[in-house]
Amino acid sequence: MNVYQDTTESEERINELIQDVEEKYFIGRSKELTFFQEYIREDNPGQKIIHFYGEGGIGKTFLLHEFARVAKQKQIPFFLLDSQDFVQNVQGFIDHLYQTLACHQNEPLNYSPQISLQDCLSLIDRFQCRVIITIDTFEQMELERWFRNTFIRYLHPSVTIILAGRKPLIGEWLESPAWRKITRQIKLEPFTVEETSNLLELNGFNNNQEIRKIWEFTKGNPLLLTLATIINLSEEEHNRSFNNNIDILTTLTKRWLREVTNEGLTRMVEAAAMFHQFDQHCLSEVLNREIPNQEFYQLTSLSFVKRSRRGWSIHDLVRDAIRIELQQRNPNQYERINKKIIDFYYHRIAKRPTEEDIASFFYHLGDDVIQSVFFHDATFDNAMYLEPIGDHNFHAVEDFFAYLKNNPTMTKTHYFNRTTNHSFQFHSPLVHKQHEQELVGPEYIKKIGYNGSSLLKNIHDEVIGISIIVPVNEQTLPFLATQPVSSAYFGNLTKEEIDFYNVPVEKTAGYYIRYQEYKDPTNNSARSFLLYSLLPLIFSGGKISTSTPLRFYQDLLYKFGFQTVPGAEHRDFETDVPTPTFLLDLSGPKLLPYLKQFLHDITQQQKLDILAEKFSLTEREQDITKLILENKTIAEIASELFIAQITVKKSLSRIYHKANVRNRSHFLKKMMDIL
Asked: Burial code of 277-316, b = ≥16 C-beta within 10 A, e = fewer?
């Protein structure tokens, strides 16, 4: 049965052609389609109202059109309305519905202002079969109370109502047992990697790495994925690709921001987007005014604002787009707000440090690697948790290491930062992972003691990772001093250092970050979760140490202020170059001075960014330039970067050539003139 029986043959053919193409390109939503197909097979389903909800661009309208095609095949009348298509009053809805029904039944159109609800109900009753009425964009339906308590109540039981909106139904839909019984709510989730791959392959994308990058950029949002098939995200030219990414985000954000109806709310949304997580107090501080409860409720009622582990957060796609737009439109305001946020968290930490405030402080410093690696968005939901290791679950530890042994694999994955358009590669060779499995296992945990070791689990109670952080005290110190990797440092301590670490078991003088591993080496969310869990060590009041040959992790350690320990290198990982030991001393009253140096480093990083852009410096050349600005010698630069002095000299020659100078003194003078 055709919804529009009064269309001409040519229109019908064009419509069928469009539907054929749409059906071919319809990807995913298998659960929702299966539900709908089973639902329409039921003679008299108990649930009369079905509500699909989800974020902007999630594909609600596209899904309804697919339902319409399925209903047409089963000859079920299916009427698709949109709340944006009629005047938001009772008569406006009645008129729109009546014209839609009349077109279907080939009735002469009646434009009389006397059309009543009874006229619509009579037309519906004349079908004498199951009828489906859908309303898209239901969140903009201002007649919700009348629609529920008048229109739906008078419908024949054979009529099904399908709603689609951004927010779940609340109020009487949930509070009334009767409405709750006949209503089913279904949340639409973003596409999985597999669904994304299917869609992109259908549009000519065949490179798995490219597909993965697009999925991470779009977070599986169907609208963004569709736009990505039009604008190739893999273009090599950075500026053009970056502008395209902004265009994609802006398109989606404009759709979401339709909910923001006044200038005051717009200012709040902009400020909230600058936070990774926010609450009413945070916003009041940054906006320099007390935000009333009603205004804050308006903000948190927006569909792209969600509860987070601590307060609220804006959906990451919208957040990134707003930040990019604000930074381009008003860079001074962007920097001013961000500076206020950093100062806000610094002073909160000075009063009483917490894990969340430490994390927020580092996040807002703006280092895109730290933001991407430590603050992967899945880190902040309730999908994972750490379970301390003990006798009761030690069998799970043995199973985990057995799995790693039986499933050897290298790690090669990357992180992507939408706001800077930078990707960061993480690579852990198979040989390194095999060496680690020879050095660390269930016996290591038994000997070191359970304290500090944890299993990483998902919401299904499955073990997906492990973390071994050794608290340093009189019990663990002898063990660390004799074990591979850690002995390079703890086996060569001075008497003064031994006295510092040799505290009673109930105390802790520091922590040794020994091992973190995952079942799925590409699981960036798990990696981010475990790395994020290390942040509380910063305010533990001790010395934090670790050793790794992986450059990716070494760079992260440098970014957090770790220094290499002279004489504590080793070859326990059997690498070509000795592996250094890294140390961060936060004992005593050193926390605030430590954090304060990063406030200074903001300016230093901004200077380095200016030079890097002006002279097209590579990452290695930026590292060397930074140390040149600190007046380090060639030998000191080589030592700090773990490269040969000849490599430093060659890099300096390239830097001088790019800057059009002859030597270091001329280079420094030119830098000072620029900065």
From this structure: bbebebbebbbeeebeeebbebbbebbbbeebebbbbbbb
Can you tell me the distance from the alpha carbon of 308 to that of 316, in angstroms, rounded to the nearest whole number?
Answer: 12
pTM for this entry: 0.63
Give the pLDDT confidence of 232-267 residue by residue, as tens digits.
Answer: 544 443 344 445 566 666 766 776 777 788 888 988
Q: What is the pLDDT of residues 314-363, one digit of tens each?
A: 887 788 888 888 888 888 788 888 888 998 999 889 888 888 889 889 98
Per the document, the length of the chain is 675
Residue 167 to residues 55, 308, 455, 661, Cα–Cα distance (Å): 8, 17, 35, 60
Burial class (CB in 10 A: 0-12, 13-18, 19+), 631: exposed
Write the CB contacts of 289 (distance below 8 Å, at least 6 apart in sequence): none
Rounded to whole angstroms, the Cα distance separating 223 from 206 reads: 20
DSSP 49: E
Handedness of CA 201, 204, 206, 207 (dihedral sign): negative
Q: What does R_g of the chain's alpha carbons equal in angstroms?
A: 30
8 A C-beta contact, residue 428 and residue 550: yes
Helices (H), 376-429: 394-406
CA 610 to chain centre: 28
Distance CA(346)–CA(340), nearest Å, equals 10
How many other CB atoms sit within 10 Å of the CB of residue 521?
20
